[in-house]
Amino acid sequence: MDASALEIIKELPDISFIDDVSLEDVQELFFTAYQDKYKEETGVTVSLAKGDPMRIALLSAAGIFYQALLKIDAAGKMNYLKYAYGEYLDNLAATRSGVVRKAATPATVTVLWSLESARTSATGIPAGTRVTADGVTYFASSEYAEIPAGATSISIVMTCTTAGTAGNGFAPGEVATIVDPVPFVASARNTDTSSGGADTEDDESLAVRAFLAPSGFSVAGPEEAYIYRCLEYSPAIADVAVTGPTGSNGVPAGTVDIRVLMDDGSGPEPSVIAGLLEYLTDAPARPLTDHVQVSGPDFVSYSVSITYYIAASNKASAPAIQAAVEAAVTEYVTWQSGKIGRDINPDHLLAGVKNAGAKRAVITAPAFTALDAVELAKLSGTPSITYGGIEDD
Questions:
Q1: Which of 50, 52, 66, 243 could link 247 by a cystine bridge, Cβ 3.0 to 4.6 Å?
Q2: Distance between CA atoms of residues 24 and 26, nearest Å
Q3: What is the value of pTM for the model shown?
Q4: How far apart are CA 158 and CA 130, in angstroms?
């Protein structure tokens, strides 16, 4: 998903359809209404002690009434991207240019089929021919292909027979067992890592696409239109960066340079690039004069080395703070590598560690590094986290 759009959605002002009324407010309203009405009818001022049966009855009624208010508030909020979820979000997104939740998609992988030696006639590989790495997950050819006469091999993009992430992550050479033998074929092996499989689109991704949907109307090729189309292609795409001739990456005139980050933090495999290029070629957002190129981000390595201290006044909470600091570092690594072009910023790490309860922290790595629009920070090694001990406040 597009991280910038998601941040915009999350930072929209909070709204309340019940004016932020609390349970205590409702309880007080019930007490006051009862006491006022009692005095109006009898002329007597009544008090409600904690054990008074009427007070207990009013508290019970107030609780039920407050639950009804919460339902009203939730129903109103389902009309807004910031709050909508599940089927409510499905219906809301459908009003935005017919955006619908993407179903689970299968992974793809490029498989090299080889003969023992060249033949004088073509060797056909039927559609549906399968290969596997583990006897559990299978990849099948989607259409007929053949090794031409005189040639010894052909590369075929094959699709996992199971939708979802199950087919992701098979390294080159692992998918090498032919399930459906083909005459004269000696071997088959994947030449790239299987990728592109995604589970059913989650709420955050769907909300982002609904937010960006108006950009998809354009046929002038703006940045947002290309981002929208890329996210539309596959929910396995986590972030997209689009630059043109004016980009600092030296893109020639007439070329749209698209950098794609997958949801596992990797760049796109060749099969994903080929599929996305074909999809963008057919998309109405691409002007005929645009030459589109797709690749992964340029990775920039960084490391994490931090020493932190806990104030003496928080000594009793030291174990909990240590665990929170570890979690804060993990969150920083995820945040840092979550968006293409995001500067390497140790201030975000420091803020997280301080919020976790540390008194202070000494960060020796990373140093602040400004990244280009097509670069992505990638952690090198394991974070070094040193607890320096207790210090006076």
A1: 243
A2: 5
A3: 0.62
A4: 8
